[in-house]
Amino acid sequence: MSDETRKQAVSRLDSAVPMNETVIHPEAVSEPPPLHDWPAAQLFDESLTPEGALRPHYTKLFDALEQLGSVERNRRWENARRLVQEQGITYNVYGDVRGMERTWELDPVPFLIEAKEWRSLEAGLVQRAELINHILADCYGPQELIRSGGLPPALVFGQPDFLRPCHGIKPKQGKYLIFYAADLARSPDGRWWVTSDRTQIPTGAGYALANRLVTSRILPEAFRDCQVHRLAGFYREMQKTLASLAPLKLDNPRIVLLTPGPYNETYFEQAYLARYLGYQLVEGQDLTVRDDRVYLKTLAGLEMVDVILRRVDDDFCDPLELRNDSILGVPGLIEAARAGHVTIANLPGSSLLQSPAFMAFLPGLARQILGQDLKLPSVATWWCGQKSAENYVCEHLDDLFVKPAFRFKLPGMTADRELSRAERARLVSHIHFQPHQFVAQEWVELSTAPALDAGRLVRRPVSLRVYLVATEHGYAVMPGGLSRVAPRLGVSSVSMQRGGASKDVWVLSEQPVEDLSLLSTSGFNLELRRVGNNLPSRLADNFFWLGRYAERADATTRLLRSALRRFTPERGGGTQLHLAPLLETLEQQGQLSAYSSQSQSQSQAPAMSRQNPEALEAGLLAAIFDPRRNGSLRQLVGHLQRIAMFVRDRTSNDLWRAANQLGDLLANAPQEEILLAADALGILNQALLGLASFNGLARENMTRAQGWRFIDLGMRIERALCLCTFLDCSLRSPEADNPSVLEMVLEVADSTLTYRSRYNLLPNIAAVYDLVLLDDTNPRALFFQINQIAQHFERLPREAAEVTPQQKILRECSSRLRLLDTRELVLRSANWLASDTGHAIVDTARDLPRLSDAIAVSYFAHSEISRTGGGFQP
Amino acid sequence: MKWEIFHRTRYTYATPVRDSFNDVRLQPMPIPEQTVESFLLRVLPSSRLTHFKDFYSNWVHHFEIVEPHGYLLIEATSRVITHPPPPLPDASICSFVQMREAPNIERCFDYLRESRFVELSPEAWKLALDATVGLDDAWQAALALMRFVHGFLKYESASTHVHTHMSEVMRERRGVCQDFAHLLLGLCRSLKIPARYISGYLATETASATHAWIEVFVPGQGWRGLDPTHNCQIGETHVKIANGRDYADVSPISGNYRGTRERKMEVEVRITAVQ
């Protein structure tokens, strides 16, 4: 919603109240809160009794809200929205081009649960987690339940999620299910039902934390009055559990969070949790297996990993034994787990119990395994693999929701509740053909809770996800969770992928609650001291390219700005002479497509577009704004944004924002209004400022650890390379010693002021080239870059004391420049490029890409994975 | 009979590769029908070998070669004595009615379903029904299906590759032993006869090679081997290495590495009868 519509909504709330819409009045303290679409059909409402009275546990929240007054309330809601944006809380939506990194929708009105009710939920959840752990242990172990008839073989073996290679792995302490989450819904009679079990990767615990930080900050009074249980204790249990699961008893085991990468829908949460818990966020390619042990590949060498908190799907974990097309996993990981040298939480294969079909068997299994009745019921479920259930389902299709029992998509299914006669017949025939693939559940009418819609309190269907972790003393439940809100009434399932917001969940305590400090922001700084020597090589690679792209964007902006400043459409092509070095540089870098690369040396043959001012102008504008043109500023900034995303968990939010602002600046530039090239100058000036702040943040807001070092390395190499390319083109110019050409050299090399402060005369070719090439006090000079690179090399880890290939290349460059004396240029009157200075520039431009490659080989070393495969082809 | 089997696979890579992780299924199974006297696995460049039993009780040897290497040599030498039970007669042994219990027998379920290379399509079901008209005995039906597959497909070496799916075999009507086995699996499973894929060796007078066939489950008789390529029940010349749902479960060498896809593979198999 735009700010404008939001303001309108707010003012509407304050002044005129439309018919049939009621809002909270400051006076109406003792009255039930008038909810906008109240009353609705016989649904359970979390805040109101069926008679319309406020439920006691909601009174403190509503009192606090009343006391704020409507203006302050709206200011708080606005704050919530701003905090979400500032924290960079996002959620990726698959298949949505613009939705990559969508801002998280937080409904700032919390969901409240009273103490007594929570205790009974807790007992039911703990029992359920224990039961599921037993079933998993049996399915991946002795399989007594199958033999005894408690579980039909088809239910286990028929599932793609039953991972045969994981059978027989014995996790430490018998913990198959370390993390568990359950989705709960409350039916109209007020009872809670489990609608789904999340046994593989219970997502959302990080979002719950983020929601809590925002909600408790904007409603501090209510948070205090309501006596809300703190979440920090739960995360501390998580840390304790994971540490205790290290295969060897260690004081400080290495725990990593294995992520599928930035394109995953919950990447934000993964990075957030990793920071909060103090674990390193790694991708599959950062890990390697040696002798059945898992190691993290860092710049300093291999470091053993003891525990993996897994966010990569089960079957993608190991391309050797599981899905061999996976590029997210670690070859040999399953064998390492089998050997007991690493703990994976949760064990791959645990998604088996996520199938809704299991719900039909849980009551029986609870009696058989635990000798107890199931305390917390599942939503009524029929698995059609049993004949009686199959018949029941086919006869009651109207009252049931048919789903795939396993994760295959099945024919004949619709998401609609109402089935036509033909649809029903088709579904029945598919069920009869492969009954064990189908499961049916009763529709759940979700309860409703107060939610915010355009500044008004309304009621919306909600579901609740709660989280558990195995501890030494059984399962611990997070006193809170993630409540998801449907966008409108009459919706019976809530999905973040399909839109919908989430809420913080406040579990109320009967006693005052002790403050825990883990919640304070100091917990978020844990990461930085870990950067030290253990930077994964993948990140080093990304930092390096972040530096290169940032500098390339900067250099390109300067070139384009200089070109546009000198560009005068009125003159004919021939008089644009002083533009030539600039245009040639842009052409060599591919940003202007005046002539093809093979004719680079024939600078005397003027290119077509240079004679035609309109074409030239269009070309220059395209080099700025055209996202499809190779090397255009817009494209460079796009690369910058993409790489900034890859290193997001290691950099500040400001850096991320600076990159996005740059992207917006270029993407949102009103194309049709920029008729003249001169108009683009303003945008280029803004872009330069944006890049400067990006560079400043990248350099100054990072510790001088290896991440910073690689950014700087990338910037130096790119700056040297751009400078060489430009100087090469400048010396090609027949008027290389013309003061206006030299002015331009100083301008592009950002050394004009330095020159003026040093020489009180018109630009002289020897002095200018000395300043931009050899002056080691000028941070823009080539020699300065070479010296900086050399210093970085001294500090980077290397295996032996001998000189590395990249150092050799660098020494060649360095000594070449040391021997150079630019005064020779004064003696020439033409053919400048043939001078020693010209040769030095050409040679350095040739060596720099080699240098970059040598760095990549030494520190990044990636190559693609191939499959071995072996034939039996008799 | 007693056999000495030598099986060598050599990969030569166009440029050195590294981080090679491999699972090898080459050790003959110790089962009542055969005694494995010895098994020796050699891998070059040399590396540490570990082994485990997979879900289908096959022996898997695992190794990793991290350092860059230009070739990979895997050499398995086994000594095996075969003593298969006499072939079952083509007579009523297990009716389809008795067979209905099979899905509930432990671990039979996997062998009644579709798998990576085997599908249960209406076409396959129709072929299976036509080939077994008038038979009410599952064992006789299995034999009839074997004869049918033998006649239906044309043996043509190199006409398919290791990843050819049964549906393609059915359409093209040609293939090698692996394809014969996959089609017979599909037909048996279509009639709800549990059937599994077997990889192994076959020694004949003219040639010795790796081979593939199937086993069907016959209540009261256990798993019985049928070789659709040669249209016979398995005998002394069949040496069994591994079993699974289809080729994907028993692939003799599976793994991955970092580096070029360009490589050459040479396989040599020698099987000799010893006294």
How is the topology of this model organized?
The complex is a heterodimer of chains A (874) and B (275).
Chain A lengths: L2 H12 L44 H29 L2 E2 L10 E2 L2 E8 L1 H25 L4 H4 L5 H5 L21 E8 L5 E7 L6 H14 L1 H6 L6 H13 L10 E5 L7 H11 L2 E4 L3 E4 L2 E6 L2 E4 L2 E4 L22 H6 L4 E3 L16 H9 L10 E3 L3 H9 L4 E5 L16 H13 L4 E5 L5 E6 L2 E16 L2 E4 L4 E4 L15 E7 L20 H4 L5 H30 L13 H9 L19 H4 L1 H13 L7 H14 L6 H15 L9 H24 L5 H27 L6 H10 L3 H7 L6 H10 L7 H14 L9 H14 L17 H25 L4 E3 L7
Parallel strand pairs in A: 3-20, 6-7, 6-11, 11-12
Antiparallel strand pairs in A: 1-2, 4-5, 4-17, 8-9, 9-10, 13-15, 14-15, 16-17, 17-18, 17-19, 19-20
Helix pairs in contact in A: 2-6, 3-11, 6-9, 15-16, 15-19, 15-21, 15-22, 16-22, 19-20, 20-21, 22-26, 22-28, 26-27, 27-28
Chain B lengths: L1 E23 L9 E11 L5 E4 L5 E7 L3 E14 L13 H4 L22 H10 L6 H15 L1 E2 L10 H7 L1 E2 L1 H14 L4 E9 L4 E11 L3 E6 L4 E2 L4 E7 L2 H4 L2 E6 L4 E12 L1
Helix pairs in contact in B: 2-5, 3-5, 4-5
Number of helices of chain A: 28
Radius of gyration of chain A: 33 Å
Structural class of chain A: alpha+beta
Strand content of the residues of chain A, in percent? Answer: 5-15%
Number of strands of chain A: 21
What's the total count of β strands of chain B? 14
Account of the 3D structure:
The complex is a heterodimer of chains A (874) and B (275). Among the domains of chain A are: 380-442, Dna Ligase, domain 1, CATH 3.30.1490.270; 537-702, no CATH class; 704-862, no CATH class. Helix content of chain A is 43%, strand content 13%. In chain A, the strands form five sheets. In chain A, strands 3, 4, 5, 16, 17, 18, 19 and 20 form an eight-stranded mixed β-sheet that branches. In chain A, helix 15 (537-566) runs antiparallel to helix 19, helix 20 (653-667) runs antiparallel to helix 21 (677-700) and helix 22 runs antiparallel to helix 26 (782-795). Chain A starts with a helix and ends in a 7-residue tail after the last strand. Helix content of chain B is 20%, strand content 42%. With 275 residues, chain B is an alpha+beta fold. In chain B, strand 3 (50-53) and strand 4 (59-65) form a beta hairpin. Chain B has two domains: 2-83 and 251-274, Immunoglobulin-like (Sandwich), CATH 2.60.40; 96-250, Roll (C8orf32 fold). Chains A and B meet through helix 5, strand 8 and strand 21 of A and strand 1, strand 3, strand 9 and strand 13 of B.
